[in-house]
Write a structure and sequence with these properties.
The complex is a heterotrimer of chains A (291), B (402) and C (156).
Chain A (H helix, E strand, L loop, with lengths): L23 E12 L2 E8 L13 E5 L5 E5 L10 E6 L3 H7 L6 E8 L12 E7 L3 H13 L7 E7 L8 H8 L5 E6 L9 E2 L16 E6 L2 H13 L7 E4 L15 E2 L2 E2 H4 L2 E3 H8 L5
Parallel strand pairs in A: 7-8, 7-11, 8-9, 9-10, 11-12
Antiparallel strand pairs in A: 1-2, 1-6, 2-5, 3-4, 3-6, 12-15, 13-14
Chain B lengths: L1 H6 L17 E5 L3 H10 L3 E8 L2 E6 L10 E6 L2 E6 L16 H4 L3 E11 L2 E5 L8 E6 L1 H15 L6 H8 L1 E6 L10 H4 L11 E6 L6 E6 L2 H6 L6 E2 L2 H16 L10 H6 L5 H9 L5 H5 L6 E7 L5 E8 L9 E2 L2 E2 L4 H20 L9 H4 L7 H11 L12
Parallel strand pairs in B: 2-8, 8-9, 9-10
Antiparallel strand pairs in B: 1-11, 1-12, 2-3, 4-5, 6-7, 6-14, 10-11, 13-14, 15-16
Chain C lengths: L2 E2 L5 H6 L8 H7 L3 E6 L4 E3 L7 E7 L2 E5 L7 E6 L4 E2 L13 E4 L3 E7 H10 L1 H27 L5
Antiparallel strand pairs in C: 1-2, 2-9, 3-8, 4-7, 4-9, 5-6, 5-8
Helix pairs in contact in C: 3-4
The chains are: A alpha/beta (291), B alpha+beta (402), C alpha+beta (156).
The complex binds iron/sulfur cluster (SF4) (2 copies).
The site of one iron/sulfur cluster has 12 residues of chain B, from α11.
């Protein structure tokens, strides 16, 4: 008897659904005001529907129907099935609508999309995470994933920068993280009043005393491009090779699936090939203006 | 190589069966051309093809031969396009105009679907009634077949398949026409896409006009192509007819209006992202988006939501967009490509370099539309030459064993 | 507890990261003009507009540099920790502090008298050059950082 693989059947009929851009209904299950302009939303699927699993660093496309769709990174715990958590800063119409959604609001969501953080590369190494501003949101799932597997890697240094103490995300969680003895969380702000006893200064100013073995460490960076560039350069200055650094990039995204062309960054379609990319591959491009 | 296969002349088309063999070649008299249109319609296709409108040859519905630009030709150069009479009555004696077939596969505006709220926590998604009948594209040039293949890879060749495009692609019949002359801005030879039509067609026509004759050499590309010929009065082509067709295409190949050196072009462009040429061309470019609209491979688009007043319905639409628009790269902090040089660089490097990284081929087929329809006559072949000329060459001390 | 504590030894002076590698002669000249001080949290070490006569090397604790302006709350623009230095207005005329320096934690610092340091730098140009080679990159880094803070890099 032949064991040849079965030949594929006739070409599947052309789908008549909305295709890869078709969202699924979710509702806001919980909402937390993080800062003046930023909220975290817990999204629950319609009863009986599943929530696709995601990897840290991936994003979803969200909209309050009729108010515009927008790409938002997933900031929830990848180990928690059944919900999507997003941290949204109210900037434009779509994000204002999302940020203003109270529990029970209907949300159209689709995803997850993109290449996330290469968590596997952390095992056995020291890990440095540097996040700036809302860049902490896509890093949070990575942190939760790493902390769940704390024994599998070396030291953990996290540096988080924000504008002011009032702009810090996940304040209660941050306090708990900072209390850990198996990791060091440094928080620094650009400017602060006298009621702030933490650090003031750029994230790069916290790097000199970050403890890691440059020969065997990985670094994950997320924040404004200029901040990531300076951070990567400072890390390289401390002897961490480029190959050990990853960055999460941002460009406008509309389709999320590599069809619309908006998120091009040189040879990359960030929705498909990113948003997380090896710094080695993008270091040169990050220095080209207006790319 | 194709000569061997085609020197064989097959049996006349059978009527009512599978039709003539794929790869076989036939002759169709000019006077019988209407029977081809009839046959296409009988087979259920809406015919779209070249027609004269507002002083240009554009693509539109073809109801009869009279709709075709009989006896017309086009004269094209950078920033200029003019129709002229031909001395003969050729049906396809011109090159490509401002339209391309992408308008049928990837319409300028498309209603994707509608979300309809059913209760507080749910909506339904409905797709608009299928508006796309099977279409026969009549008069598809070699470069345009290459462009179809390129857009196919974008819309249905990746992980995310665009359902509308896939539906229209499944229903298209490609009736190619081989070019017997080249336009003033054509450079398909440089891009390896033409002028000979080699594959990707259902039927291919070569208009034979020498010595007072007016006939079409018809090559069968697919079983679908063979099937629609049912009832069309064809005669077997002789080897001399095939040679006459090849000679016409060779004439076109020799008459290319432009040439582009594509040697190492990916690395050339990506290695010269800060060439002074970008500023120079950026000063001339109006960022009018004409080139991207005319280009048969440009696929960038935006999606829009159209809510109705009751907020119970939300329609998702898609429309063509362009990397020349400031808003195209808008982030909340501003536009990433805020200058025209940056936007021209994005366009050209995408067409000729990063398209390889993203989709495995060039994004340019050498059709020349962007040159002809640029209001200030910017010519990408000239810009590439300028970038090559301005590229720093390795100095005497650079590498090698001296 | 604010004030001088156990005097610093030449070995300790030499061991400080910022001064390490400077010549023994140079450091010996500084030693008589150097003292160690301890401050409680919340102590104002220097005040904007006051004469600047001292150079500070932080051994322990945390110091905030603040901009103080009438009618506006104090604004911290930089915090510094162990191993870091502050105060160079003794080097730059008109030798007045440009920020307030205030401890955020109980802190221990090594203080070098500015005029003596200036004299030593002049007298030993090689050490002077080395000293500036260490100081200038710090100034440059702080200037870079300040630019990004002014740029408001995380602005919405
Ligand atoms: S870039 Fe210009 S020449 Fe190339 S395919 Fe597009 S329109 Fe044609
Ligand atoms: S290159 Fe020409 S056609 Fe294209 S945007 Fe610029 S001016 Fe318009």
């Amino acid at each position: 008897m032949s064991t040849a693989p079965e030949i594929a059947g006739p070409v599947a009929p052309v789908p008549s659904h909305g295709g890869p851009l078709e969202p699924a209904p979710f509702t806001v299950r919980a909402r937390a005001q993080e800062t003046r302009d930023t909220v975290s939303l817990v999204l629950a699927p319609a009863p009986g529907s599943e929530v696709p699993a995601f990897r840290p660093g991936q994003f979803n496309m969200l909209s309050v129907p009729g108010r515009g769709e927008v790409a938002i990174s997933i900031s929830g715990d990848p180990g928690r099935a059944g919900e999507w958590v997003h941290t949204v800063r109210a900037l434009g119409l779509a994000t204002q609508a999302l940020a203003g959604s109270m529990p029970g609001t209907l949300i159209a969501a689709r995803g997850p999309y993109g290449q996330g953080w290469p968590v596997d590369r952390a095992w056995g190494k020291d890990v440095v995470i540097v996040a700036g501003g809302v860049g902490l949101a896509p890093v949070r799932p990575l942190l939760l994933e790493l902390l769940r597997h704390r024994a599998r890697f070396g030291r953990l240094e996290v540096i988080y920068g924000a504008r002011t103490p009032d702009d810090l995300l996940y304040a209660p969680e941050l306090a708990a993280w900072r209390g850990r003895t198996d990791a060091r969380f440094q928080v620094t702000v650009d400017a602060a009043g006298r009621d702030w006893y933490g650090d003031v200064g750029l994230v790069t100013q916290r790097l000199p005393d970050a403890r890691f073995d440059p020969a065997s460490a990985v670094a994950f960076l997320c924040g404004p491009e200029i901040m990531m560039r300076l951070t990567a350069e400072t890390l390289e200055g401390r002897g961490l090779p480029r190959e050990g650094i990853w960055v999460s990039l941002e460009r406008t995204m509309q389709c999320g699936v590599g069809l619309c062309g908006h998120c091009q960054f040189g040879p990359y379609l960030l929705c498909r090939d990113g948003p997380v990319l090896p710094y080695r591959d993008v270091a040169r491009l990050l220095r080209i203006r207006g790319l | 190589m194709s000569g061997l296969r085609n020197a064989h002349v097959g049996d006349p088309p059978s009527h009512g069966g599978m039709g003539p063999a794929v790869g076989s070649r036939w002759l169709l008299a000019r006077d019988e051309f209407p029977s081809l249109l009839d046959a296409l319609r009988r087979a259920g296709y809406r015919i779209v093809g070249p027609t004269v409108r507002d002083g240009a040859i554009v693509y539109g519905s073809i109801r009869s031969v009279a709709d075709l630009p009989e006896g017309w030709t086009d004269r094209q150069s950078a920033g200029a396009y003019r129709l002229e009479r031909r001395p003969d009555r050729a049906l396809f004696g011109y090159n490509v105009g401002p339209h391309s077939w992408k308008k049928y596969l990837f319409p300028p505006r498309e209603h994707l679907f509608t979300l309809r709220r059913t209760d507080a926590a749910k909506f339904e998604v409905s797709v608009p009634e299928d508006p796309d009948p099977p279409m026969a594209y009549l008069g598809v040039r070699a470069c345009e077949i290459a462009a179809l293949n390129i857009q196919d890879r974008v819309f249905v060749g990746g992980a995310a398949v665009d359902p509308g495009y896939a539906r229209r692609k499944a229903r298209r019949l490609v009736v190619a026409v081989q070019c017997g002359q080249a336009g003033g801005t054509c450079f398909c030879v440089s891009m390896g896409t033409g002028p000979a039509v080699r594959d990707g067609f259902d039927l291919s026509l070569t208009e034979l006009l020498d010595e007072g004759r007016h006939e079409f050499l018809v090559e069968i590309g697919t079983a679908d192509g063979a099937r629609v010929l049912d009832g069309v009065p064809l005669r077997p082509a002789e080897p001399s007819d095939v040679r006459a067709g090849e000679a016409r295409v060779a004439d076109a190949a020799r008459a290319m209006g432009r040439a582009m050196d594509t040697e190492g072009i990916h690395d050339l462009l990506l290695g010269n992202l800060e060439s002074p040429v970008w500023d120079d061309v950026g000063r001339r470019c109006l960022a009018c988006t004409n080139c991207t609209l005319a280009c048969p491979t440009c696929f960038c688009h935006s999606t829009e939501e159209v809510p109705d007043l009751s907020a119970e319905r939300d329609e998702r639409w898609r429309r063509w967009d362009s990397c020349f628009n400031l808003a195209f790269s808008e982030l909340h902090t501003g536009s990433v490509r805020s200058t025209t040089p940056a936007r021209y660089r994005q366009w050209l490097t995408h067409k000729l370099a990063t398209w390889f990284d993203q989709f495995g081929s060039s994004g340019c087929v050498g059709c020349g539309r962007c040159i002809t329809w640029c209001p200030v006559g910017i010519d990408l072949t000239a810009e590439v030459r300028a970038i090559r000329a301005a590229a720093p060459r390795p100095g005497p001390g650079a590498g090698g064993t001296a | 507890m604010n004030g001088p504590v156990r005097p610093i030894t030449s070995a300790e002076l030499e061991a400080h990261a910022f001064l390490h590698g400077l010549s023994a002669r140079f450091l010996a000249e500084l030693l008589p003009h150097t003292e160690r001080r301890e401050f409680a949290a919340g102590h104002t070490v220097a005040r904007e507009g006051d004469p600047a006569r001292e150079f500070f090397l932080i051994e322990v604790g945390k110091v905030a540099l603040e901009i103080v302006a009438e009618g506006r709350p104090h604004l911290t623009v930089l915090t510094l920790g162990p191993g870091e230095v502050f105060g160079w207005s003794w080097l730059v005329p008109p030798h007045l502090w440009r920020v307030d320096a205030r401890t955020l934690k109980p802190s221990r610092v090594v203080v070098v008298a500015g005029p003596a340091l200036r004299d030593a730098l002049e007298a030993h140009p090689e050490d002077g050059y080395r000293f500036l080679r260490r100081l200038v990159p710090i100034l440059a880094r702080r200037l870079d950082a300040t630019r990004l803070q002014v740029f408001d890099v995380y602005r919405p």
